[in-house]
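Standup, Tuesday
Yesterday: got the pipeline producing C-alpha cells again.
Today: sanity-check two examples.
Blockers: none.

Example 1:
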Amino acid sequence: MGILDSFERGLERAVNGAFARTFRSGLAPVEITAALKKEMDVHASPVARDRVLVPNRYVVRMSGEDHAAMSALGDPLIDELTDLLSDYAAQQRYQTASPLVIALEPDPSLTVGLLDVRSSSERVEVVWQPVLEIEGQRHPLGERTVIGRGSEADITIDDTGISRRHLEIVWDGRRAEARDLGSTNGSTLNGARLTRAVLPNESVLQAGRTRMLFRVVAKAQGR
C-alpha cells in the first residue's frame, strides 16, 4: 500500500465523510499530501551517512475558495496532515530540527485547484496536547476530563452501554491517568479491565460499544 493511499484513508477518517461532500471540485486534501511529500523529498539534505534532514515548516498556498473549503474542516485536517507527513518522514528515515508545522494560506494569484508549497527549517516552541479520538473526531483533553453519556460529562457519547459519568482522564502536563468512575459496565484499557492506570500514548480505551484512542500530539506554540 502506497503512502498516498494511507494519507487518503487517514483524511477520510478525520473528516467523517465530509471529504466527498466538500471537495466535489477544486483542490482535494490528497493533492495537498502529494505536494507536501514532494516538497519534503526535494529538500532532503544528507548530512551524514545515516542522517537526512528535511524542512519542518510547510506553508501551503491555494486560492481563496479552496482555502475556505479546507478551513471549514478545522484543526482535524491540519492535525491529520501533520501526523501522516510525520509518518512518511519516519518511513524515509528523514529527520527534522523541530516538530513539523503545516499552515494553509490563501493566495489570490492562484486559481481554484492549484497550490504552491514552500518549506523552511526553523525551531519552534511546542506544547504537548493530549487528545481522545472517538469515531474519527479528535477531542482535546484538559487537566480533568469526564467521559460519559450524561450532559454533565465533558465528552458526551451516545452509547447506552456507557454510564452518565463513566470514566475520567487526568493530565498533569506530562502524563495521563485513566480512572473508571464506578461505571455499570466497566471500562478496558488495551483490552484489560480498567480501574485506575497510567495511560500510555496510543492507548485504546473501551466503554460500552465505543472505542477511544488516546494520543499525545505536538503543537506549535500559539496554534
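Example 2:
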Amino acid sequence: MKVIAAYLLAVLGGNTSPSANDIKGILGSVGVDCDDERIEFLLSEVQGKDVTELIASGREKLASVPSGGGVAVAAAPAAGGAGAGAPAAAESKKEEKVEEKEESDDDMGFSLFD
C-alpha cells in the first residue's frame, strides 16, 4: 500500500509516469524503506494505463464485494439474554467515550508524530 500511495502522490504532483526512483524518493523522504520488487511489479502493472481509469475499474470491482454488514446482525442474537446484557453494554460504551475524550484533550498542541 505504501508503494501505491507513493505512486499516486507522484501522479497527483504532476508526474504522469513516475519511475522507481521517484517512488523511492517519496518513500525515503518520510523515512520508509521500500522493496524494489514491489515497486517494479507496480510499475509493470500500471505501465501505459491511465490512473483515473484504473481507479474507476477498481471501484467497479469493489462494488461487488460484500461489506460484511450481516456479521453484526448475526452476532447479536447469539449473545443469549440480550435484555440483561444491554444495560451493561451501554455503560461500557459510555465509559469508553469518556476515556477517548480525555485522551484527545491531553494531545492538544502536540504533533501526531512527537
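Quick observation on example 2: The mean pLDDT is 76. The CA atoms of residues 2 and 32 lie 9 Å apart.
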